């Protein structure tokens, strides 16, 4: 698998509250992870960095003991990240939290875990498939049939999330499993990218016959060209 990550402050924020992780050859599994922090002052970037560190540390320490049950491994890793952020917030008497989306990859399957509105996508041949459903106020309205997905994309409250890592003592993560094929491309991103571009627009750039590095750079450029209202972070990986 080849993978590339990019993070950018955007055009409107004073600091970058996103963090990401791509496992290298020394890491026990292939793991991709993005966190989008929230909080005043520098709390958001502390929350995202803390979550990434705690999550990856748990995975590294528990493998190979829990590799036979990836869902359990990822659930416990999210719990570890949640505890780390929650305890740090209480210690410093500040409010902070973070979204989290992670993908664990084996030879035939991918395991996706997420909390909040950072997303994972699968691109296969000519199609793009969302692998996550945002934990957000507008997606609750979509599920209830109150608004359409198109209306949710431009809703004034689309940035309000209903779950986050570190906000409460416990957090519920969603975990899904998908089969993978040679040539599949994975995209993980914070809402600084998905909030600026439609799925089909991101797909069009990823399909171009240019290097992965240039694809990632072009996605960041496009998000900034459309306003860059938030930090922009993405990971592209090809099976």
Give a quick rundown of the structure.
The chain has a single domain, classed as Phosphatase 2c, domain 1 (4-Layer Sandwich), CATH 3.60.40. The strands form two sheets. Strands 2, 3, 4, 5, 6 and 9 form a six-stranded antiparallel beta sheet that branches. The chain has helices spanning 43-62, 70-92, 137-144, 149-153, 191-194, 199-206, 212-225; strands at 2-8, 18-22, 30-39, 96-98, 100-105, 109-115, 119-124, 127-130, 174-179, 185-189, 232-238.
Could you list some keywords that capture this structure?
11 strands; 239 residues; alpha+beta; 6-stranded antiparallel sheet; Phosphatase 2c, domain 1
Structure explained in plain terms:
The strands form two sheets. Strands 2, 3, 4, 5, 6 and 9 form a six-stranded antiparallel beta sheet that branches. The N and C termini lie close together (5 Å). This protein has a single domain, classed as PPM-type phosphatase domain (Phosphatase 2c, domain 1, 4-Layer Sandwich). Helix 1 (43-62) runs antiparallel to helix 2 (70-92). A hairpin with a 7-residue loop joins strand 2 and strand 3. The radius of gyration is 17 Å and the shape is globular. It has helices at 43-62, 70-92, 137-144, 149-153, 191-194, 199-206, 212-225, and strands at 2-8, 18-22, 30-39, 96-98, 100-105, 109-115, 119-124, 127-130, 174-179, 185-189, 232-238. It is 34% helix and 28% strand.
